[in-house]
Design a protein that fits this description.
The complex is a heterodimer of chains A (316) and B (276). Chain A is α/β, with parallel strands linked by helices and 316 residues long. Chain A has two domains: 156 residues, Rossmann fold; 123 residues, Rossmann fold, CATH 3.40.50.920. In chain A, strands 2-1-3-4-6-5-10 form a seven-stranded mixed beta sheet, with helices on both faces. In chain A, strands 7-9-8-11-12 form a five-stranded mixed beta sheet, with helices on both faces. In chain A, helix 7 links the parallel strand 5 and strand 6. Chain A is globular. In chain A, 57% of the residues are buried. Chain B is of the alpha/beta class and 276 residues long. Chain B is built from eleven helices and seven strands. In chain B, the strands form two sheets. A five-stranded parallel beta sheet of chain B has the order 1-2-3-7-6, with helices on both faces. In chain B, strands 4-5 form a two-stranded antiparallel ribbon. At the A-B interface, helix 3 and helix 5 of A face helix 6 and helix 7 of B. Chain B: Keywords: Metal-binding, Thiamine pyrophosphate, Transferase. Chain B: This is Transketolase. Chain B: Its cofactor is thiamine diphosphate. Chain B: Belongs to the transketolase family.
């Protein structure tokens, strides 16, 4: 499990999986809100115009129409930038998808701070909290291209609502073609250690792996957990790792409230008395910059995570 | 069913609706009364829907976008045989009941949950689009309130329905001119409603008496015969229709009748049923 220079963004992987399956399954339908380009779905729209719906810049309608289609047997995938999908159409996700229990897969693209310098309007730092609070909504943040593929293949087989968030840019590989262990709704234990547990989701998994490497050189042994399934959270994995280490560190590209950190903290507080620290974006508009610059600034890169873990461990 | 029977039925079901409200101690009586002929004409004359075919892929689909008129909807679905009326009366709004104050699609006959306004039309656009793409000949209907038209999502859906030529979609506006705070034109006006929908590319049918079965029947037939564009029926109804006690009174939006008012209303409804 090594990092390399991957050039394929997770959104492109989603398009490839849907392209492959749409050939056989004519009920698969992709809906976009003038977002086919940013969703990497142009090849799908071109290949399967009868299975593609353009809704225009109307995110509320995007989600409700997807729900209506799902009610009539379609398998809709509604794509929109995560910032709009999770807030502009939040009530449609809550009522028409989750409450009415329609088989809609909501795909939030360019999530977190992927849009960098475009500002807070284009950042989705609240989507995990918002979507997780909806009864019946599952929330997934796959870490790399191989896991994204596995996740999508599983989602194609079920009939339940789900929200998937992926970033805009390619992320370093965590897995490879032959080695991508995946069981639906079970976290992936990337490595086991005895000092600190790093739990991350989405793009932050790679940063946690980087941090673990830095810590290892200093003689600090870290467990690393890829919690792509934020909801339902794999509580067993959290508790086992917490019990075997002195400290739990969560890392997420999200506001500090209501996301992975909050959920992990709830579980650890209830099940075992271990210290938990949460690394996340600030409760404020984020500083201008590309995502790597912003991650470094807020201590969300390998160095920053290692530093926070080290400080918290020595404070114990 | 002949039109005379449908007209009688509308008054019979109004009485059931008032009983449901009294039993549950709550409800939206004004709008329940104004949409009754629309629901009766749809469920007992126009739509291909029954408990027997409720799972068929070719059934007609209905979404009550103004979900707060659920008591009228319950009385119609009970009469159609989807569930027993007595069960609704026993359980409406009670602890643990499936008969809640807005449509609940865990109940037979109810396609989608609603309650928050502005959801029905967009969902129906999706249903109509799926029908077109799958080559099915079902029709999709929704009833919206006139106050509801202030929701922006309605107009997103209006655009899409035209863009995709959804002639299998028919929306009905319960144009009773009243909403919870008062006259719709004072709250957020809908002047030239006909022109607004027409400019969005819809076929618009004005029904001057939206509580008249004959007129509604004609409008729904015209909608079925309209090709290449969606149809909206603007049904000019009377809020609280059925008894002078509540007709055209905004305060009856969700008023629960006193025992005295109940007796008067039921007597008025019975009288009008017999007068048909």
């Amino acid at each position: 499990m090594t990092a390399d220079k991957n050039t394929v963004a997770n959104r492109k992987v989603i398009c490839d999986v849907l392209l492959e399956h749409a050939k056989m399954d004519k009920q698969i339908t992709v809906l976009c809100s003038d977002s086919r380009g940013s969703a990497s779905m142009t090849p799908f729209a071109d290949a399967y115009p009868d299975q593609f719906v353009e809704m225009g810049i109307a995110e509320q309608d995007l989600v409700s129409v997807a729900a209506g289609m799902a009610h009539c047997g379609k398998k809709p995938y509604a794509f929109s930038p995560a910032c709009f999908l999770s807030t502009r159409s939040y009530e449609q996700c809550k009522i028409d998808v989750a409450y009415s229990h329609t088989n809609v897969k909501l795909i939030g693209i360019s999530g977190g701070i992927s849009y960098g310098a475009l500002g807070m309007s284009h950042h989705s730092a609240q989507d995990i909290a918002a979507m997780s609070a909806i009864p019946g909504m599952r929330v997934y943040l796959p870490s790399d291209r191989f896991q994204t593929k596995k996740l999508m293949e599983h989602l194609l087989q079920d009939k339940e609502p789900a929200y998937v968030r992926v970033g805009r840019n390619p992320v370093g590989d965590i897995y490879d073609e032959k080695n991508c262990p995946f069981t639906m709704d079970q976290a992936v234990i990337l490595q086991e250690g005895s000092d600190v547990t790093l739990i991350a989701c989405g793009e932050m998994v790679k940063k946690a792996v980087d941090a673990a490497e830095i810590l290892a050189k200093e003689g600090i042994s870290a467990s690393v957990i890829d919690m792509y399934c934020v909801k339902p959270l794999d509580k067993k994995a959290v508790v086992e790792a917490a019990q075997n280490t002195k400290l739990v560190v969560t890392v997420e590209e999200h506001a500090p409230f209501g996301g992975l950190g909050s959920m992990v903290s709830q579980v650890v507080a209830a099940e075992c008395s271990k210290k938990v620290i949460n690394i996340a974006l600030p409760d404020a508009p984020v500083i201008t910059g590309n995502s790597q610059e912003v991650f470094a600034y807020y201590g969300m890169d390998g160095e920053g995570i290692a530093k926070s873990a080290r400080q918290a461990l020595f404070a114990e | 069913m002949k039109n005379k029977e449908l007209k009688k039925l509308a008054y019979e079901l109004r009485q059931d609706t008032v009983d449901i409200i009294m039993a549950g101690g709550g409800g939206h009586i004004g709008g329940d009364m104004s949409i009754m002929e629309i629901l009766v004409e749809l469920y007992f004359d126009q739509m291909n829907i029954s408990p027997e075919n409720q799972n068929d892929s070719d059934r007609d689909l209905f979404v009550l976008s103004k979900g707060h008129s659920v008591e009228a909807y319950y009385s119609v679905l009970a009469k159609k045989g989807f569930f027993p009326l007595q069960e609704v009366k026993d359980q409406f709004s009670k602890f643990g009941s499936p008969y809640i104050g807005h449509p609940n699609n865990k109940l037979p006959g109810i396609e989608m949950n609603s309650g928050s306004l502005g959801h029905g039309l967009p969902v129906c656009v999706g249903m109509a689009m799926a029908g077109k793409r799958d080559g099915r000949d079902y029709r999709v209907y929704t009833v919206m309130g006139d106050g509801e038209l202030a929701e922006g999502s309605i107009w997103e859906a209006a655009m899409a329905a035209h863009q995709y030529h959804l002639d299998n979609l028919c929306a009905v506006i319960d144009r009773n001119h009243l909403q919870i705070s008062g006259n719709t034109e004072d709250v957020m006006g809908h002047e030239n409603l006909h022109d607004r929908f027409a400019s969005f590319g819809w076929h618009v049918i004005d029904v001057s008496d939206g509580n008249d079965i004959d007129a509604l029947q004609k409008a729904f037939i015209e909608a079925k015969n309209t090709k290449n564009q969606p149809t909206v029926i603007i049904a000019n109804t009377i809020k609280g229709k059925g008894s002078p006690v509540m007709e055209n009174k905004a305060s009856w939006h969700h008023h629960v009748p006193s025992q005295e008012e109940y007796a008067t209303i039921m007597a008025d409804l019975k009288k009008r049923e017999e007068a048909v």
